[in-house]
Amino acid sequence: MSAEGHRRWEDELAAWMLGALDEPEAEAFERHLARCERCRSDLNWLRPAVDSIPASVTQVAPPPRLRGELLGTVRSEARRAAAPERRKRRRLAGFPVPRPAIAALAAAAVVGAGVAGYALRGGPDTETFLLRAAPQAPAAHGELVVEGDEGTLRAGGLPRLDRDLVFQAWVRDEGDAELQPSTVFVPGRGGSATAAIPGLEDAEQVMVTREPRGGSTQPTTTPLLRARLD
Amino acid sequence: MPLVARKDPAAFEVFYDRHGGAAYSLAHRIVGDPAAAEDVTQEAFLSIWRSKARYEPTRGSVRAWTLGIVRNRAIDALRREGGRAPKLDLDDEAVLERRPAPERTDAEALRRETARQVRGALGALPNEQSQVIELAYFGGFTHSEIAKMLGMPLGTVKGRMRLGLEKIRARFAELVE
Fold first, then answer.
1. Is the ipTM of this complex over 0.85?
2. Closest residue of B to A53, CA-based?
3. A69 to chain B: nearest residue by CA?
């Protein structure tokens, strides 16, 4: 290819590196790049120039909750991936409970007000735990249905929220003092809500607090609802 | 990065602490809105964690690779929000006028120095070259969109992009020497 003929590709290279080619043009250039040593060499030479462009922007500190949410998700996914045995155990624990035992557990739930929540019943793959309300949310109630390592929280009678607040679930693992941030949700007009709660394979407790919009990395208010999963 | 690829949350934490600020800043610069920048940064880091994006050492530094992912996600977000074209136009002074970025107050002196030098390199370009580079990189516009916007031939836009990048690159070469 003549130097003049190749000039066209040099211009394409810069536009391609900046993501400024239309798709068909980009594909044509990539086919050329695959067989043109000179363009690959130019690409390697120019790459630091393109890579340096982000360093020119004004640095803005990310909100701390972004870190908290990301790390919460990552830890939860890592735990899930690392704990197949535990999941299996929890599934086994969810085998059907005989009816008399359900009645006994339900009765215990009514009289045993000192403990936060109780397994009431199970299906082939699920366990259901009562959510217990704190005194500041007397009408709140609900249950947490756990299947494998994921739960569905269904709550009603939740107090009204200001526009800048949300409810946030928290998960405490066995033997862990730290609460992991979980799902953020807002109830409907009737004060009821349903939220998916992942990462329950090692969970001992699930709680719900009121938090600023967007959620928090640590609870900033006392829990309104709690369920014990053991 | 190998530890992040092996799904080590502690390694991911270090990775985020090292690159999260630059990633969020870039996303913020492109989408122009804190909430959207947060979403973009989160999407980009989770895609890295979930290995939908794999780091190739031949492609440059981990930071450059990470910011490339953030940039693409941010441009996608702009396009999702505004239809085909990103929400930038000739009145966007952030693109068309050079504004000096304030120095950070943290202790990353080396990074700050690099950023200062890069700003210098970009700032030293003739406006006609920096303009097309910024419209493409930060605005996500194609060369044909830029040509239409600025009322100039396609070849001129691409030529200015190339000249601009070559000048920045030459400036780096001088700094290293």
1. no
2. B118
3. B42
In A, minimum Cα distance to B39 occurs at: A66
- Where in chain A are the domains? 3-56, 64-228
Amino acid (one-letter) located at B150: L
A19-41: average pLDDT: 90
- What is d(CA B164, CA B134) in angstroms, rounded to the nearest whole number? 10
| Assigned architecture for domain A64-228 | Sandwich (2.60)
Of A226, A229, A153, A150, nearest to A184 by C-alpha is A153
* C-alpha to C-alpha distance for B88 and B31, rounded to whole angstroms: 9
Helix axis angle for B9-31 and B34-49, nearest 10°, is 140
CATH tag, A3-56: 1.10.10
Mean pLDDT across the stretch A61-77? 89
- Residue in A56, A60, A173 to test binding to B, most B beta-carbons within 10 Å: A56
pLDDT at B101: 37
Q: In order of start, what are the domains of chain B with their CATH numbers?
A: 1-87 (1.10.1740.10), 106-177 (1.10.10.10)
pLDDT at A105: 40
CA distance B38 to chain A (A): 7
Q: Strands A119-122, A225-228: parallel, antiparallel or unpaired by DSSP?
A: unpaired
What is the pTM assigned to this prediction?
A: 0.57
The predicted structure's pLDDT at residue B151? 92
Which secondary structure element, helix H or strand E, spans residue A116, and what is its range? Answer: none
DSSP class of residue A56 equals G
The H or E element containing residue A156 is strand A150-156
Q: Which of B29, B133, B143 sits opposite A58 (nearest CB)?
A: B29
Buried residues in A77-111 as b, exposed as e (16+ CB within 10 A)? bbbbeebeebbeebbeebeebeeeebeebeeebee
Q: What is the pLDDT of residue B109?
A: 52
The whole-angstrom separation of Cα A76 and Cα A196 is 13
